[in-house]
Amino acid sequence: MSKHVVLTGDRPTGRLHIGHYIGSLKNRVTLQNSGDYDNFIMIADTQALTDNARNPEKIRQSLMEVALDYLAVGIDPAKSTILVQSAVPALAELTMYYLDLVTVARLNRNPTVKTEIKQKAFGESVPAGFLIYPVSQAADITAFKADTVPVGDDQEPMLEQTREIVRTFNRTYNKDVLVEPEGYFPPKGLGRLPGIDGNAKMSKSLNNGIYLADSADVVQKKIMSMYTDPNHIHVEDPGQVEGNVVFTYLDIFDPDQSAVAELKAQYQHGGLGDVKLKRRLVDVMEAVLTPIRERREAYAKDMGAVEQMLIDGTAKANVVANQTLAEVRAAIGFNYFDK
Ligand code: ATP
Ligand code: MG
């Protein structure tokens, strides 16, 4: 039996943060180490360009940072193929073909894209490439015939869109070429980590993240400035647990959940100060981040090796994606010159 296939990735719009870690990176490492999957992990520079066309330097600078973040969390180039999207031209060609199987009305309905368009304040100037990026994601996923896509909750609409394209393609061209993917999501509640400012999503673009590469000092400062309950002013005041980001993070990252339950009771009752609570979170996050930070620093000493990893991974990815593209062209009937 052929192996299952994983495809997932990140936009190189900055370094990766603990939202990426809990929403996707951790699951990727689990799937990778299970040995049951062929793993493709893509640095989505073409997709990043859809809302950064006038700032390609940001993407260029972030590329190697994201690669380092991968290595730091335990993605192993011996087990996972790490590729750069723009260097796999078949992905762009597949996108062109899939665009004809999707309506503009359908693209306009995508709830994640709608939220992002509002956040980015495009107004009337939404780049066409941004609106269609879910179609390019369908190309990325199907090029590798991935059946498993480890991502955060915000990616659910993209997976639905991909499944629709797969079904429409296979039906329209009467061939079973493309594979329908399933999302591989973190347990409920972990798929969308809020930002340190209380915003519903920690995001590179919103500048509200704790980054895997942040120093211990920076992590401490960020946690000390975190959003809690704005009405919890004095230690003795009763405080809100719901919507309090410090508790959200403790729920997710603190291994001692019975202690967290006690802290919640105390906080709600009054008598537990934010500073004490935040100090606990600093310790909890440091336990998670210290080994990641140390591995990152070790890999950063040989950037030549990191670059070679991307060259090798991208070469391997081109072989697989070109094979799928040939099948897609043949299914459409665009194989005029094939022998
Ligand atoms: P950008 O703001 O540039 O879109 P981002 O922070 O949203 O950046 P992406 O590169 O778009 O990051 O997302 C990469 C992966 O991380 C996706 O699988 C996404 O679902 C997941 N992810 C991103 N942010 C979070 C979050 N706050 N909580 C959980 N998962 C997340
Ligand atoms: Mg995003």
Quick tags:
339 residues, Rossmann fold, 2 domains, 14 helices, binds adenosine-5'-triphosphate
CATH architecture annotation of the largest domain: 3-Layer(aba) Sandwich
CATH topology of the largest domain: Rossmann fold
Structurally, how many domains make up the residues?
2
Helix residue percentage: 40-55%
Biggest beta sheet summary: 3 strands, parallel
| Total DSSP E strands | 5
**Shape label:** globular
Hetero groups: adenosine-5'-triphosphate, magnesium ion
Structure report:
- GO terms for molecular function: ATP binding; tryptophan-tRNA ligase activity.
- One of its GO terms (cellular component) is cytosol.
- Keywords: Aminoacyl-tRNA synthetase, ATP-binding, Ligase, Nucleotide-binding, Protein biosynthesis.
- InterPro entries: aa-tRNA-synth_I_CS, aa-tRNA-synth_Ic, Rossmann-like_a/b/a_fold, Trp-tRNA-ligase, Trp-tRNA_synthetase.
- It comes from Lacticaseibacillus nasuensis JCM 17158.
- This protein is mostly helical and 339 residues long.
- It folds into 2 domains: 4-193 and 303-332, 3-Layer(aba) Sandwich (Rossmann fold); 216-298, Tyrosyl-Transfer RNA Synthetase (Orthogonal Bundle).
- It is built from 14 helices and 5 strands.
- It has a 3-stranded parallel β-sheet. It has a two-stranded parallel sheet with strand order 4-5.
- Helix 4 (90-99) crosses helix 8 (133-143), helix 10 (216-224) runs antiparallel to helix 13 (274-300) and helix 11 (245-253) crosses helix 13 (274-300).
- The longest helix has 30 residues, at 303-332.
- 39% of the residues are buried.
- Adenosine-5'-triphosphate binds next to helix 1.
